[in-house]
Design brief:
- The protein folds into 2 domains: 77 residues, 3-Layer(aba) Sandwich (Glutaredoxin), CATH 3.40.30; 110 residues, Glutathione S-transferase Yfyf (Class Pi), Chain A, domain 2 (Up-down Bundle).
- It is built from 9 helices and 4 strands; from the N terminus they run βαβαββααααααα.
- Strand 3 and strand 4 form a beta hairpin.
- Helix 4 packs antiparallel against helix 6.
- It is globular.
Length: 203
Amino acid sequence: MSELILYTNTMSRGNTVELFLKILDVSYQRVELEYGEPMRTPEYLAINPMAKVPALVDGEIVVTETAAICAYLADKFIEKGFAPALNSPERAAYYRWFFFTAGPIESAFTVKELGIELNEEQQKSSGFGSFERAFHCLETGLASAKPYLCGKNLTAADIYVGYFLIFLCKYALIQPTPLINQYIDSLALNNEIKQLLESLGLR
């Protein structure tokens, strides 16, 4: 089996991938890239033309985008139990909340942080509508978690969504609601996530 190589930066979304790799308990080579020129070398641009991290190399396979990397790893190590079976109905919620967070939620958060207010017409054509609507939708998923997004088992979708929420709470970018706190408490049943929360002073 080829060695996994993760290109990342300590101040990047690659931290989500590193958390998942620790939870999976698989070995990998970590390559730290500084922002700027190190991400624009011809060698790295051949891996990720976006000149961003994280990027995962698995032999001849290259996967970029944090959600895609987590989904890839969950399927690569399917025996670890962090992805529903391909024929399981739980795959619907798994895909939904994985990619809803990677798409509309990420976009809504970025627009909010840039201080951009979309008018009603602009909200109709945007992929997320409004920040408030997008987060309300995410909370409907948390409200139906049992205790996780796909049911009783922690999945890669929980790790991706959960880390995003933990990041927002840590830097006071959102006010944690009772539903968010309840969900994070469920995530903390995993020892690696519990240690992360303690290191961030959130538990």
